[in-house]
Specification:
Largest sheet of chain A: 3 strands, parallel
Helix content of chain A: 25-40%
Structural class of chain A: alpha/beta
CATH architecture of chain A: Alpha-Beta Barrel
Largest interface: A-B, 78 and 80 residues
Number of helices of chain A: 10
Low-confidence stretches of chain A: 248-256
Oligomer: homotetramer
């Protein structure tokens, strides 16, 4: 089967994107390996720490770096960080985050659209983190984003798909890959998102806060693949208000 | 990792049990292969159909047959079917189903306990389908069952884990493998059951009603493995009422 | 409208039954008043405490006492408590509780059926607390119960309608008033139970643990009435996958 | 108790706002009466139909008219409709709706903020329908709105509180009355919204599609009051993973 995730012309086999913010560098390597991840986010401050711990050296060959604009509170700051990231060799992908709410860390859709427009024109492959509002998603498409990354729940909350009804609408109405970007707390939730037709899932805290990080990375990898396969296979119907024998129960025993 | 499902002294690598009732024989083979299934249920009537379509010939080497007592409306009928199954060479495992409600196909816990007691004494490895009632589960343990198989939702409904709160109690309180046996409609639901510490999941309708049966079997296999891995890894905490930065957001941009 | 709850030939206007276990006697009076309650449970030990605090003197005229068999671990003990309750003047109603699980306080359906049979023959109006198992409910009907009281969630948990799918089945299949008896934690949950066609709701902990007990009693009263009215009115349809203008949106503005 | 809803300096006893779009004029009167409603929306086209059916004549004395901008696809159109409404005598309240998505009827937050700013400066009491995005809600506050009206689910869907997690955030963070404006399908959902601290609920389709419209109006009235009372009373705690006796179960029977 040749089912690939295509982002800005680049093809990926893996549909699990790793947020690296909560991991040590060595841990990041382990998660990449066990989760068979091909794309890893990177906060700029970690990229250019200088000294002996430059994260770029820790990222294995073949992994696509997805620098994020973490820390940006408006479009202008985000644009500045994105340009800096490209300058220091992080490539053209940029995960756009514009956040000025420090309690719920909810994205500012309006500033995000503005930054997307500027960065897309400069050749960036913009992957914007957003609040799943259909109108904002349409504007992100028009602004030149290569994917739309709605949140499932507040960042780091592990609360799951609280925005399910609206992500479903995005999947139906938006012609870009939809990637659920925050809130996914368990593999079953990642699986469910994929069953709904989401193109990929981004994960960070759920893996970072697990008891065994490498094993949880594997679990997410499999759950994402399972959900994708189920979406492609086509889910069965749900019965309402009764049961239906799965065994060939054409009659009770005596009548045999 | 040597994580095995142990049922009556027998070890299994797979934690996805296939209900075969809704499949043609050739289809059963395909699902066994793609789902990497090691245990398949069998309704007695299909076992001894005679003529060219004897299902036993279709079951690959190494697969454990789990004959069920489908059609039994009380303990006596179930016992009769179980003995017949053993006589015709289906082995010692028996999936006990006692159902006399034809609309919701809900199991009769009381008759099920009675039949379990009789069959366990005769050396059967009894796996009873049951309504997830803690008291009944305790009686099944005392009666000699090798596992307890609570329903998630009415058979064939694909409604999922409607009994979640009570399956969680069984997992905590019962010292036998808990296997969710009916209602699971999507891989994400199988994954969630496994995350809760269920030992295995049984699936039939969800695969049989999928668009692509083989692919859905693969999806269930992966989802079950993902849920198991997550359970073993230890799920992370869920935040209430706020977010938590996954990136090392020690300050906003200016303050760097 | 002459919509009454009929239990064993007795008519009630109120569909909110008060569990009194967690209240002081004075508080019980307040809740009865603000909740406009007509039936109140009573644990035997509180009835015959002797001395100055005899709860029977605190129950206002016109309130039906529903003694419960709290403390009974099997049918025999329950029968004994019920007879004692009648002897000391608590009337013919008996709320049957048989519980021997001290962590989740889940009822033993089997012993409950046995006790119901004995007590119904002795003329008691038996209202059995039960785990919502359709087969057990049918046996309670045959044993002569005047209502069936399934739990929504473990007693005192305030977790709500965790057994929703199965209470719905009881409402459909059982020809006695179904009364949700444990777990209801918020007025909205009581309202939802009533919308589903449940005949009454029993409440104790949700009111007892509220900040303002009298006000919460009023809230439950109204929520139960709202749910009943909605059930009688007939709920509207739920749309799937789109919206439908509520305003007469026959065209956008320009086209007027 | 002197608990009032205050909108733009006007006080209301009722916290159920009626959307009138789906009702005949006579029916609107019935719902106002049985739901004890004090505020009713009005689409402009219905206000000035001329001829014998002028809805303004049908609205009872003392009811506040809340004209909406239904049909507006951008801020400019909405402003135009609002001014027209005031000119023909609909007063200063305006329910702002800016929608250009014809399938899900989702509001355009950005245009809504723009229109709010203009209309608030002209002295309107602006009540904007919005997608529950915290950043947009903050801008509506700054723009001078007198309340914020997030949707629970797509208009007319009766799907309930699909945006629960985010409405909870608005209740916590926004210092204006939060009014849930679309999607509420059952009284229990209205009750739950009110329990969360929402200031009022708007209802239209759920009542219009009920079997008995007047009775459903009454049900919603009571459910809204129940939820408000529960919010003011303070909800009790939810137990996790066990039960807690509501009766004074200090010991089992023998130990008495």
């Amino acid at each position: 089967m040749n089912d690939r995730l295509v982002l800005g012309g680049h093809e990926f086999q893996s549909r699990l994107i790793l947020g690296s913010g909560k991991f040590s560098l060595a841990m990041t390597q382990a998660v990449i390996k066990h989760g068979e991840v091909e794309m890893v986010t990177l906060a700029l401050r970690r990229a250019n720490v200088g000294g002996e711990e430059n994260i770029l050296e820790y990222i294995p060959e073949g992994i696509t770096i997805l620098p994020n604009t973490s820390g940006a509170r408006n479009a202008e700051e985000a644009v500045r960080i994105a340009r800096l990231a490209r300058e220091i060799g992080c490539g053209s992908f940029i995960k756009l985050e514009v956040i000025h709410d420090s309690k719920y860390l909810l994205p500012d859709n309006y500033e995000t659209v503005k930054a997307t427009e500027i960065l897309a024109k400069e050749g960036f492959l913009v992957m914007p983190y957003m609040y799943p509002d259909l109108n904002a998603a349409r504007e992100l498409v028009n602004a030149g984003a290569v994917s739309v990354m709605p949140l499932g729940a507040p960042i780091g909350s592990n609360k799951g798909l609280c925005t399910k009804e609206f992500i479903r609408i995005l999947v139906e109405e938006i012609d870009l890959p939809i990637i659920v970007d925050a809130g996914i707390g368990r593999p079953s939730q990642a699986c469910e998102a994929m069953e709904m037709g989401v193109a990929a899932v981004m994960c960070n805290t759920a893996i970072a806060t697990a008891g065994d990080v490498a094993q949880m990375a594997r679990a997410f990898k499999q759950a994402v693949e399972a959900g994708r396969a189920a979406y492609l296979a086509g889910l069965g119907r749900v019965l309402d208000g009764r049961a239906e024998a799965s065994s060939p129960l054409t009659g009770f025993l005596e009548e045999c």
